[in-house]
Design brief:
By secondary structure, the protein is of the alpha/beta class. The chain has two domains: 129 residues, no CATH class; 235 residues, P-loop containing nucleotide triphosphate hydrolases (Rossmann fold), CATH 3.40.50.300. 44% of the residues lie in helices and 18% in strands. Strands 9-10-11-5-12-13-15-14 form an eight-stranded mixed β-sheet, sandwiched between helices. Strands 3, 4, 6, 7 and 8 form a five-stranded antiparallel β-sheet that branches. Helix 1 packs parallel to helix 4, helix 6 crosses helix 7 and helix 7 crosses helix 9. The longest helix is centred in the first third of the chain and has 70 residues.
Length: 497
C-alpha cells in the first residue's frame, strides 16, 4: 500500500519554510536545513496522529494472538403434567461447555493480517516523512538561492556606491588636487662601469591614488621602486635626487631608509622571499605589529588574525598557525599584504605582485588592493608590464623606457589618446578581443642596455618617426596641448598619427 500526503499539505509546508527562512534572514542565526525539516515534521498533523493509530493497531495484534475463549451455556426447563400425568411436575437443569476449534491455521492468518496492518501504517509514515523532507529541502534550496541573489545584489550595490565615491574623489582631485604623500626625484648611477640605468625620474603620489609604472623588461621600473626605499643592489647608488614625504601637510626631505615600514611598505612578485620559512604566519605578522605598536605578544597575535581576515584569508585563526610552505601562492601574497598593512603605512609599493599568480587569484589580489585604496585612502605605486591590468587599477600612468619616463598622465587619457610613439607601440601590441581579424603589431628591435644608451632620444633606434633631431638631442618631458594633463618626452608629439 502506497500512501500519498495531500497536495494542500505541501502548500502549508512551503509557507512554513518561507516564514521561517525570511525571519531567520533577519536574525543572528539563520535557520538551518536540518532545523527546518525537524520543525516541519513536528508540525505536520497527519504525522502527529500516526503514533495513536499505531497504538490502536498494536492492540489489535494482541487480540488476534489470543485463542478463542470457552463458551458456557446453562439451561433450566420446568415440566408440568396434568390429568394422569399430574405427578410428573419438576425442573430439569442442563449445562453445556463449547469452544471453537480453528482449523487450517486460521489463528495464524488472523495474526498475520493484524501485523500487515501495522506494516501499512509504518509504510505510510515513512512515505509521508520522505515527502515532507523532499519538499522542505526543495523549498529551502530555492530560498537559499534567492537569499544568495539578494546578498550578491547587496554586494553589487555596495561596490557601485564605492565606485561612485571613487569617481567623486577623482572629480574633486581634478579640481582640487589632494595632498601629496610623496615626491621622489631619482637618479641612479654606478661607478664601475660608469652608467646611469635610471633617471632622472620625477614621481609624485597623492593620497588615495594609484600610480602605475609600465614598460618593457629592463626599463628600470623595479629599480625605481627600490630606490624609494634605498634597497638598491650593491654598487648602485642614488645621485643628486631628493625625496620628500608628507608630514603635517607639507613635503619634508626624508632619508629613504627611515620610511621603510613606517610610511612606505613594499610587496614583490615573489612573496615567498618575504616570508621566513622558520616562522609561523601569525608570528611573522605579530612580530611586525609588536615592532610598530609595542603591544604584547598576545595582542599582536590577535591583531595578526584580524589582518589576515581583512585581506580575505579564509579561516584566519587556523592559517595563522600555518608555516609559509603550507600556503598557496595567492595566500602567500595576501599574507605579504597583511604584513604591509601591519606597518600602518600610507604608501604601498607593488612590484608586479600578480605576475606569478593565475588569472583568478590575480583578479582577487587586484580587487583587494583596490578596496584598500578606496576605503582606507592607501596610496599605491604599481609596477607591471601588463597594460590591461594597469588600465583597471591605475589613476595615473608613467610609461618608462630605458630608465626614463617618456609619457605620463591620467590613465584614461593615456589609453584613449596616447602621444608618445612608444606608448602607441605598446598599445598596438595589446590583444583586443573585439577584433577577430588582423595581427598584433610587435615593436621592432630590443631595449638598449644601460651601458649602451643611444645619444638623443633613447627610443629613436626603434621609432618609425625618428628624425635627425631625435638622434642628436634628448627630448624633455613637457606638457602637451593634445591631451589634458599629459606630459610627453618627444620631439614630434604633435606629428604623431
Amino acid at each position: 500500500m502506497f500512501v500519498r500526503v495531500p497536495t494542500p499539505f505541501f502548500a502549508i509546508v512551503a509557507a512554513l519554510v518561507v516564514i521561517g527562512s525570511v525571519s531567520a534572514s533577519h536574525s543572528a542565526e539563520p535557520l538551518t536545513l536540518a532545523a527546518a525539516v525537524d520543525r516541519t515534521l513536528r508540525s505536520n498533523p497527519d504525522l502527529a496522529v500516526l503514533p495513536a493509530r499505531k497504538l490502536e493497531q498494536n492492540a489489535r495484534i494482541e487480540l488476534a494472538g489470543l485463542r478463542p475463549q470457552l463458551a458456557i451455556d446453562a439451561q433450566i426447563e420446568n415440566a408440568f403434567g396434568s390429568g394422569a400425568y399430574r405427578d410428573l411436575n419438576g425442573t430439569e437443569t442442563s449445562l453445556s461447555l463449547s469452544q471453537v476449534i480453528e482449523l487450517g491455521d486460521q489463528r495464524r492468518k488472523r495474526l498475520a493480517a493484524a501485523r500487515d496492518g501495522m506494516d501499512t501504517l509504518e509504510l505510510a509514515q515513512t512515505v509521508a516523512q520522505l515527502d515532507v523532507v523532499a519538499e522542505t529541502t526543495r523549498r529551502y534550496i530555492e530560498l537559499a538561492s534567492e537569499e544568495q541573489q539578494r546578498t550578491l545584489a547587496a554586494q553589487w550595490l555596495a561596490a557601485s556606491q564605492r565606485k561612485t565615491s571613487e569617481v567623486e574623489r577623482r572629480v574633486k582631485a581634478a579640481r582640487d588636487p589632494e595632498v601629496e604623500l610623496v615626491r621622489a626625484q631619482i637618479d641612479l648611477s654606478r661607478a664601475e662601469p660608469r652608467v646611469s640605468p635610471v633617471g632622472p625620474v620625477d614621481l609624485w603620489l597623492d593620497a588615495g591614488e594609484c600610480l602605475g609604472i609600465v614598460g618593457e623588461s629592463g626599463s628600470g621600473k623595479s629599480l625605481t621602486l627600490k630606490a624609494i626605499l634605498d634597497l638598491l643592489p650593491d654598487g648602485l647608488t642614488r645621485g643628486t635626487g631628493t625625496q620628500k614625504i608628507a608630514q603635517g601637510g607639507k613635503l619634508v626631505p626624508t632619508d629613504p631608509r627611515s620610511l621603510r615600514g613606517a610610511k612606505i611598505s613594499m610587496i614583490s612578485q615573489e612573496p615567498a622571499a618575504a616570508l621566513d620559512p622558520l616562522m609561523r604566519i601569525g608570528d611573522l605578522i605579530g612580530e611586525i605589529v609588536r615592532h610598530h605598536s609595542g603591544c604584547s605578544w598576545a595582542e599582536a597575535r590577535l591583531r595578526a588574525v584580524d589582518l589576515l581576515r581583512r585581506v580575505g584569508v579564509p579561516d584566519p585563526e587556523t592559517r595563522a598557525r600555518f608555516w609559509p610552505h603550507e600556503l598557496s601562492g595567492g595566500l602567500k601574497q595576501r599574507v605579504v599584504i597583511s604584513m604591509a598593512l601591519a606597518c600602518q603605512s600610507d604608501i604601498l609599493l607593488c612590484d608586479e605582485p600578480t605576475t606569478a599568480l593565475d588569472v583568478t587569484i590575480q583578479a582577487q589580489i587586484v580587487d583587494l588592493l583596490r578596496d584598500l585604496q578606496v576605503n582606507d585612502g592607501l596610496g599605491l605605486i604599481f609596477v607591471t608590464h601588463d597594460l590591461a591590468l594597469i588600465r583597471q587599477i591605475a589613476d595615473r600612468i608613467c610609461i618608462m623606457y630605458a630608465g626614463l619616463i617618456v609619457e605620463t598622465g591620467p590613465s584614461a587619457e593615456i589609453f584613449s589618446n596616447p602621444q608618445h610613439p612608444y606608448t602607441r607601440a605598446l598599445l598596438s601590441a595589446l590583444p583586443d578581443i573585439e577584433q577577430s581579424e588582423g595581427r598584433l603589431v610587435p615593436i621592432e628591435g630590443t631595449p638598449p642596455a644601460a651601458t649602451a644608451f643611444p645619444q638623443g632620444c633613447r627610443f629613436a633606434p626603434r621609432c618609425l618617426r625618428a628624425s635627425d633631431v631625435c638622434r642628436q638631442a634628448a627630448p624633455a618631458l613637457l606638457a602637451t596641448e593634445d591631451a589634458q594633463g599629459v606630459k610627453v618626452a618627444c620631439h614630434h608629439t604633435g606629428d604623431v598619427t
